[in-house]
Amino acid sequence: MMAWLGAVLLILGLLFFLAGSLGVLRFPDVFCRLHAVTKADTLGLGFIVLGLGVLQQDWQRFLLMLLIWGLVMLSGTISCQLLGQYGREQTTDQEEPAE
Amino acid sequence: MSGDFWFDALLGVLLLVLALATILARQLAAAVMLYVVFGLMLALAWARLGAADLALAEAAIGAGLTGALLFSALARQPKSITPPVRISRMELLPALVLCIAMSAVLGWTLWQLPLQPAHSQLPAALEQLGSSGTEHLVTAVLLNFRAWDTLLELLVLLLALLGSRLVAAPEPAALQHWPLARQWSIRLLPLLVLVAFFVLWRGATAPGGAFQAGALLAAALVVLRLNGQLPALRFDMWWVRALILAGVLAFLLAGLLSVWLNWQPEQAVQWLRWPLPLAKGLILLIELCATLAIGLTLTLLVVGERKELTA
């Protein structure tokens, strides 16, 4: 039962990563791509951490992975903001969005 | 075939593809990004091989700091260099011949190496582990059995820094300072310092050590410097020079001390072999000095400058 739950959570996480990668490749501009890639970071990694936690059932490791997830989320949000800011400056500088 | 095999095979193929893509990329920025990804995948490969020390070093130095170094070098490039320069086929021919010859020699040398060395030194090293002053075999090899190699590695790093100072790099473009980035780098600083010293301390019993810890310290310093939160670091400041030389100096002094302590008349001079009661302390002292030296050297390689940056 737990193994199934873990597997479903892992697959959900992978789907988010897949969607994020597709988004980076297919979306038209910086902002849409950032939207896609940050979802993969936060939700995808979160589901994978949860799935691994369910599979391993080792609280110490689970807490460690949660901490790592938190750090990744923090740095992900901040680099997303910075990239977005840079993208906005670029587009307003040139009066036309870069392709 | 097991899942492990397919994962490793996929990783190996991915590494080859990434390496080719890095070389063949048209834009330098894309090549640098691919190189960083290549470094991360290589770290994963080392981890799969059970070489956690190498994985840590590759991720921190190979992917992280080298990536930052290449990007900061890109930022100093005049814009006109970025488009690829067309070279005629005839000009490429000597380079091609040289590359093929080099590859042939390297391949032939590799072919000569036995896959499993007949006289492995591993059992002997494991036997001596108790008298090395540390419980982690890699640290014991790096700082006791083959301390000579590590001393030379530190010298190589020093030479790299001195060599890079001879190149007249153009001034980097003015940096933008974003409040968010500055806040984040300040928040990250204690975490990075903590993790760096944890990695250093842990090197005695588990994967970790001076190079990894130094790379983490350098990462903290580089981020602070790029955000304009640190005064310019220049090689002509006395304390910068002292810290950079600290690694090699501590190593040499400890080596001389070991010669003096191990001195017995009518016996071969024992250089860089620590007497057991002092071993742990000496190794820690050398590693601490080396960490600071490596951290500062790598920082100067990435963001060192001659004049004050115009912010």
Percentage beta strand of chain A? under 5%
What fraction of residues of chain B sit in β-strands?
Answer: under 5%
Largest sheet of chain B: none
Largest interface, Cβ cutoff 8 Å:
A-B, 6 and 4 residues
Indicate the low-confidence ranges of chain A by residue numbers. Answer: none
- Alpha-carbon distance between the two ends of chain A: 48 Å
Average per-residue pLDDT of chain B, rounded, comes to 85
Oligomer: heterodimer
Overall average pLDDT of chain A: 86
Transmembrane segments (chain A): 36-55, 62-84
Pfam families (chain A): PhaG_MnhG_YufB
Protein name (chain A): Monovalent cation/H(+) antiporter subunit G
InterPro entries (chain A): PhaG_MnhG_YufB (IPR005133)
Give me the secondary-structure topology:
The complex is a heterodimer of chains A (99) and B (311).
Chain A: H1 2-26, H2 30-56, H3 59-94
Chain B: H1 3-24, H2 28-48, H3 52-76, H4 89-112, H5 122-128, H6 137-145, H7 147-166, H8 179-202, H9 210-226, H10 238-261, H11 276-303
